[in-house]
User: Which sequence fits this backbone?
């Protein structure tokens, strides 16, 4: 997929105008194709699509790594295996949830044993992508290939429903919930093989999507930095051109966080110290950036 017209100029503008941060590689052994990272405060949990970069393949050879925050070594363990193409992850209390092609798999955070699955195959999506927490009993999940978002209700018998919107979002990918404003921030990876993804938020009362910036791209991860700023990643192209953007929602300005392009900036997390921990999906690394 080619980047949209004008991408090169945008990258140059961002690199020249932003306060950028040097990257730090924090894994000392090669992963395959890491897609998402979450933490319980002691460990990073990294989903890995496996040797073959096939985000919809049901091959059963993909894994979730469990890596010490203090230092990733080859002695760190495989948290869970036998998955198909795990992507977005979140942790609620003692349970880790991972999106895996057409289902959500719940794991015990201590043992890594599977607790249960939530089957969403009936919605005809093979690309369940990112997960966001609303509260201890409610999740949001994006289905990028069918341009929809679903609400998962956790209970003794979990169930889901579609978050019905007035207008569809092009390939919804990254999600993060803002409890203060009852908003679900969303960024899209695009649809119909076009980098026409958008960045915005859903007003969960009105069920409407509002764009924050006009720029379109191959957007993947999203997080709330503070009341005025969000962080969004854009692949730009399927090579080492990816950028990490700091978006000011008040004046619509964009700053580039990374000084070196990232090969596939996937679903990241923010630490309490405003550090971005992000999978570099194409090159199989986990990178850290400090947000200024």
Assistant:
């Amino acid at each position: 997929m080619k980047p949209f017209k004008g991408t090169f100029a945008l990258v140059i503008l961002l690199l020249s105008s932003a306060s950028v941060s040097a990257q730090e590689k924090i894994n000392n052994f090669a992963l395959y194709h890491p897609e998402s990272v979450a933490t319980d405060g002691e460990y990073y949990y990294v989903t890995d699509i496996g040797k073959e970069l096939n985000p919809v393949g049901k091959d059963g050879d993909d894994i979730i790594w469990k890596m010490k925050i203090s230092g990733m070594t080859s002695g760190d363990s495989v948290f869970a295996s036998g998955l198909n193409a795990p992507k977005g992850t979140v942790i609620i209390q003692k349970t880790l949830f991972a999106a895996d092609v057409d289902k959500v798999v719940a794991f015990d955070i201590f043992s890594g044993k599977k607790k249960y699955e939530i089957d969403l195959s009936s919605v005809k999506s093979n690309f369940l992508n990112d997960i966001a927490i609303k509260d201890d009993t409610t999740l949001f999940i994006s289905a990028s290939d069918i341009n929809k978002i679903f609400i998962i209700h956790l209970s003794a018998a979990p169930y889901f429903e579609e978050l019905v919107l007035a207008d569809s979002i092009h390939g919804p990918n990254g999600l993060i919930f803002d409890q203060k404003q009852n908003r679900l921030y969303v960024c899209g990876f695009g649809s119909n093989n076009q980098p026409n993804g958008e960045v915005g938020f859903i007003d969960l009362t009105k069920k409407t999507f509002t764009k924050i910036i006009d720029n379109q791209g191959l957007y993947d991860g999203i997080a709330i930095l503070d009341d005025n700023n969000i962080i969004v990643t854009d692949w730009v192209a399927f090579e080492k051109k990816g950028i990490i953007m700091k978006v000011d929602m008040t004046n619509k300005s964009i700053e580039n966080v990374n000084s070196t392009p990232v090969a596939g900036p996937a679903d990241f997390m923010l630490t309490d110290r405003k550090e971005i921990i992000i999978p570099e999906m194409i090159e199989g690394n986990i990178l850290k950036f400090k947000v200024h």
Remarks:
- The helical segments are 7-17.
- Confidence is low (pLDDT under 50) at residues 1-18.
